[in-house]
Each structure stands twice: as structure tokens, then as C-alpha cells.
Amino acid sequence: MPTQRRLRVDRIQVSAADSGVRLDRLLAGQLSISRAHARQLVDEGAVVLSERSPRADTRLREGDEVVVTWDGGELQATPHALPILHHDEELVVVDKPSGMPVHPTSRHARRLTVVTALLGTVPLAGGPPERPGVVHRLDAATSGVLVLACTVRAHGELSRQFRAREVEKVYLAVVSGCVEVSEGSISGRMARDPKRPWRMEVSPAGREAYTEFFVRSRSEDTTLLEVRPSTGRTHQIRVHLAAIGHPIMGDVLYGTEAERLMLHAWRLGFRHPASGEPMSFCAPPPPGFGADGRHFPREGSRS
């Protein structure tokens, strides 16, 4: 089986908010690793702090630069045919099936993922070695359009577009209950639930999050929504819709049970990272997305 091994280099600029924080704590938070792993990297000489060798308990100052050079290990390719909507030298756009994680994690270490399915057939580049090419993510249970970078240049530019909110993201969601208004917006700030850290919640102490929705069709007990998030917080659409009393069908974490999470990334628009040309891709909802034909959009996205 093909594998991909990469040397990972991370550069972290210490902000005013992190001034005074221990180096091992900063590394753990920034790199999503344990503090023990962070201390090991420091002890092995993999960490340079403003061109000097630090200790794990070194207190950081605003303006310090932390450079970490480390081996991210190997990713094992698990060849699997994915629907490819577009592929060129800079990027690949796929139609991700529901139930497939985007990249390996400690939770999904042995599962088939989009990244491991593409390895060996599509060159992915940029970002940490355990998730090469990944510039945005969809929850494992969410289906639909996903773009990945094939070059470091593309990874940087696409990541910038997502951070700058220059990307058009349009989802379809089947929610519980009849949404009476034809359209609306939700601006609840979001934070991690302190009692259940695997969940997110609307909280005034959280980060800003903004979601627009438009009703496309209604049935007796469900509503099909077109959803446009302008921010990209974890579980944003799921939490926001549950917060207004209309959780997504199949969302066992925030509301209701069904055969699958009824959330689909329908359209994605961005500029090509090399040419700057506007690009837009659409993934039709998969079979079984709605209870019947009323849940399948027949027209283009709202302009």
C-alpha cells in the first residue's frame, strides 16, 4: 500500500494573549498534541524559540517565534473510489460521502478517510503531515463538496480565502418541524460546552458565528432549508439550527435520530489559487437524503 511520510515544520508567532504562557502549554494548544508530547519535542531539540534552544517551562514573550520541526509519521493509503468533481495541478474537488471523516484523527485512526482514499492517486500538499491538503473540513456525517490542495501554494491561498470568508458555502439541511418564516439569520456566538467538550453550544463567551437560512420546501413535520454560514465554527449549522428549535434530522448530538445526518454541502465557490478564476461546484444530494422527492432541490441555488 502506498504511504506518505512528511517532515512537518510549524512556525508560531507568540501573540500578546500568549505572553507569559509556558512553551509546552502553547505547543499543546497550537499543535493539538498532549503536553507530554510537547515536552518530548522540546527535549529532542525539535523546538527553536527565537533562534535559541528553550526549555519546556520557558515563559513566552509577545513577538517570540517558535519553530517546530518534527516527523508527523506515515499515512497509509486506503485506495477507494471517490466521486471527483474537478482535479488539476493545484487542487482536487470531491463529493464526500456521509460517514467518511476528512482525515485521520486519534478517533478515526483506522477508518477510511478522504485523505487516505486519495493518497497514491492524487498528490496532496500543504498543512500538517497527518492531514495533507486539507484547507477546510466537513463533519464525518456530512456529505458534499470538499476541496483539497495539491500544492503548497494552493494550500496557502485556499486557506487564506476560507479565513477571509471569501468562499461561498451553501448547504442543504432537513430539519425537524415546520419552519414558519421564509428566511432568517442566526448570530449566536459559539463555544465548547465545558461539561461535554465533544459538543459546542451557543454562548455569549464564545466566538462570533453567523448563519443565514432560506426555506426551500416544507412537509408536515420537516423543512428543507438552504443554509449559508458566513463563519466556519465547529458544528456551527447543527448548533445554530438546534438553538432555534429546529435540529437537523439525524443529529443525535444535538437533537433527533434518523438513518443519517441530513446535512449536505451542496455548493462551494472560491477563486482558483493560481489563476484567480472564479470556480463553483455543486454536489447533488445523495439518494435517501430526503424522506421523499419533496426534499430534493430541483432548481439552482438562491442567487
> What is the CATH level 1 assignment of the largest domain?
Alpha Beta
Distance between the termini: 45 Å
**SS-derived structural category:** alpha+beta
| Total E-strand runs | 14
CATH architecture of the largest domain: 2-Layer Sandwich
The residue fraction in helices comes out at: 10-25%
Unreliable stretches covering 5 or more consecutive residues = 291-303
Whole-number radius of gyration? Answer: 21 Å
Explain what you see.
Mean pLDDT is 85; it is low at 291-303. The protein is built from 5 helices and 14 strands. The strands form 3 sheets. Strands 4, 5, 6, 7, 8, 11, 12, 13 and 14 form a 9-stranded mixed beta sheet that branches. It has helices at residues 23-31, 35-43, 114-118, 152-163, 236-243, and strands at residues 3-13, 47-49, 65-76, 84-87, 91-96, 143-149, 168-176, 183-186, 190-192, 200-202, 211-218, 222-229, 263-271, 278-282. Helix 1 (23-31) crosses helix 2. It is α+β, with helices and mostly antiparallel strands and 303 residues long. It folds into 3 domains: 3-73, Roll (Structural Genomics Hypothetical 15.5 Kd Protein In mrcA-pckA Intergenic Region, Chain A), CATH 3.10.290; 75-163, 2-Layer Sandwich (Pseudouridine synthase), CATH 3.30.2350.10; 168-295, Pseudouridine synthase, CATH 3.30.2350.
